[in-house]
Amino acid sequence: MPDPDHLDPYARYERLTFGRPAPGVLEITMNRPERYNAADEVMHGELGDVWRDVDRDPETRVAIIRGAGKAFSAGGDLEMVQAMTEDHALRSRVLREARDIVYNVINCSKPIVSAMHGPAVGAGLVVGLLADISLVARTARIIDGHTRLGVAAGDHAAIVWPLLCGMAKAKYHLLLCEPVGGEEAERIGLVSLCVDDDELFAKAREVAVRLAEGSQEAISFTKLTLNNWLRQAGPAFDASLGFEFYGFAGPDVREGVASHREKRAPNFG
Questions:
Q1: 92-174-239-56 Cα dihedral, nearest 10 degrees
Q2: Neighbours of 20 (CB within 10 A)
Q3: Which one, of 132, 119, 112, lies nearest residue 28 by Cα?
Q4: Most buried residue among 11, 144, 208, 264 by CB atoms closer than 10 A?
């Protein structure tokens, strides 16, 4: 009997759903709307794996990444974060997955378009900002919440924020966890384009179709070349990830998790 995963490489995914809105275009949806698409242990791994499947998929020329429901992504699931503070093996696994998310997006030969609406935080934001063309809804709220949680800004922050919006703006938003609205994100160069909320997904598909109809070799080689800027920042990213996960074994993250659950400001002493 043929292996269904061999026929459909996306059949094994639990937290991501897939559609084909146009020839050559694969739309990937983070699908935990009841939790605002927060990345649990399953989704976190899938957000790293999926770009390898996209890269090998002969039917896909372009991928769109979006969120279901009212949010793009609400960041890391607090249950997963809590478990990481107590389990070294889990911390190590999630660290490897966090590294895979970043490098697999960068190294995927197919262009990726992101469509961010509502809250855009955490692992989902990694893909949203590293996407080759990033679109954001006017009322979206981009937040890198690491320091508010009590850990260093790892994930994607060191590798791409200074390049996109400059060091001064990167430090302001990363050190203070200051939210960035859609219009401001476009103004400072953090995203490619801000559009009205009701136009976001249509615009993402329009951009994806244009990419799918272009010269695939030229587009792929252009992406590969431009992403060498990100690869040069790889050592800084690896260091930030190490500092972040060092923090998951420390005391501040416990207060950070507690403050999130109790909906209060953290007291880091």
A1: 70
A2: 11
A3: 112
A4: 144
User: What pLDDT digit, counting tens, does each position of 98-125 carry?
Assistant: 999 999 999 999 999 999 999 999 889 9
- What domain range includes position 182? 4-199+213-260
Say if 268 falls within a structural domain. no
Residue 208 belongs to a domain = no
- Choose among 86, 87, 73: nearest CA to 44: 73
Dist. CA 212–CA 219, nearest whole Å: 9
pLDDT for the residue numbered 6: 55
Q: What is the pLDDT of residues 176-214, one digit of tens each?
A: 999 999 999 999 999 999 999 999 999 999 999 999 999
Residue with tokens 């429901």: 69
Strand order in the sheet with 119-121: 73-74, 119-121, 141-143, 180-181
| Residue 47 in this model has a pLDDT that exceeds 80 | yes
Q: Is pLDDT above 80 for 7?
A: no
The answer as to whether 191 is a domain residue is yes
